[in-house]
């Protein structure tokens, strides 16, 4: 058995210390140790994991990461999700965050099934030897064998003791990771699955939820829907599920709707298309044509004055989640604790 070198990371101004294995990032090591840190994307894009290195040496996985501004670089700030400690370190962290309910674990996963959903979306089903422990709405990092490419994908099921991890993935034009998933990976292939991560998971306090998903973010919203339907008080809960795409061909009716419908007090399924193609609405079974326009506009139009009654979950392209967050907070006055988004760029 090989042992990886471990370095100790000490947090300035506190007695918090945690071990970081060689090759692991400062962010992931902190979360594995149960230390709550601010973060979202885990891939260098959003900037929410900024910190200062006071002592020690780290390797930067992505020196040109867009999550750091020129000002950050002048002030010698770094990204915890991109820093691999090479020695023991002392760090000054940015905002602390609540600890997530599950500590991330790095393990091997085997591809068991691929289920096509649309012309460019499929559900990939992986299995691990241990239970799949995560909260509805969280994501995992998949390290794909060819080219050692790593990407974040949200789970589209709920935690389970069978070790089953489902991911709805939309093919990205020219995308390295999705071309491996769609074109090269075969049933039986093994990947490294590291997770769960993410703060945009289902909260129980408000029985009224809105789930807004586009692209590969659709899976996270299906997971939140299934999570709400599995709660003991599901029959007193209301969920609005909004899915969006450029045309009706980009949309599908999630199989989870039937199960959720039978358990929730009320479930409303809405679709929106931002392009101009007219066909395909009937196949979704929404009882009407998809909304014509952007997803955040559909949310505003459908919910109207009742918007503030809900807790919002969203996942998808940054333009969609940013537009929704801007509208809800700046125009409609929702508070930060009513919104749960993880930004992926
Ligand atoms: Fe590190 Fe997004 S840049 S979590």
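-> sequence recovered:
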């Amino acid at each position: 058995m090989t042992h990886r070198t471990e370095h100790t990371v000490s947090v300035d101004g506190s007695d918090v210390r945690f071990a970081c294995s060689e090759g692991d990032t400062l962010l992931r090591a902190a979360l594995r140790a149960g230390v709550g840190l601010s973060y979202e994307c885990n891939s260098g894009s959003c900037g929410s994991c900024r910190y200062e290195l006071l002592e020690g040496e780290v390797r930067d996985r992505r020196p040109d990461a867009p999550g750091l501004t020129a000002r950050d670089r002048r002030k010698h700030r770094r990204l915890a999700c991109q820093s691999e400690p090479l020695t023991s370190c002392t760090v000054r962290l940015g905002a602390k965050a609540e600890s997530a309910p599950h500590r991330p674990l790095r393990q091997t996963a085997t591809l068991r099934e691929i289920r096509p959903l649309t012309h460019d979306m499929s559900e990939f089903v992986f299995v691990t030897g241990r239970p799949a422990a995560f909260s509805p709405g969280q994501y995992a990092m998949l390290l794909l064998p060819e080219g050692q490419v790593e990407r974040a994908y949200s789970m589209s099921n709920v935690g389970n003791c069978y070790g089953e991890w489902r991911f709805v993935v939309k093919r990205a034009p020219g995308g390295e990771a999705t071309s491996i998933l769609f074109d090269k990976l075969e049933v039986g292939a093994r990947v490294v699955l590291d997770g769960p991560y993410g703060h945009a998971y289902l909260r129980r306090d408000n029985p009224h939820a809105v789930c807004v998903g586009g692209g590969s973010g659709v899976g996270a919203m299906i997971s939140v829907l299934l999570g709400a339907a599995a709660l003991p008080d599901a029959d007193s809960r209301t969920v609005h599920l909004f899915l969006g795409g450029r045309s009706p061909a980009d949309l599908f009716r999630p199989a989870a709707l039937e199960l959720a419908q039978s358990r929730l007090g009320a479930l409303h399924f809405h679709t929106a298309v931002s392009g101009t193609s007219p066909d395909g609405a009937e196949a979704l079974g929404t009882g009407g044509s998809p909304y014509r326009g952007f997803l955040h506009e559909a949310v505003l139009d459908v919910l109207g004055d009742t918007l503030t009654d809900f807790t919002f979950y969203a996942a998808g392209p940054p333009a969609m989640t940013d537009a929704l967050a801007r509208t809800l907070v700046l125009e409609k006055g929702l508070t930060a604790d009513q919104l749960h988004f993880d930004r992926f760029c």
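The pocket of FE2/S2 (inorganic) cluster is lined by residues 39-42, 44-49, 67, 79, 81 (CB under 6 Å).
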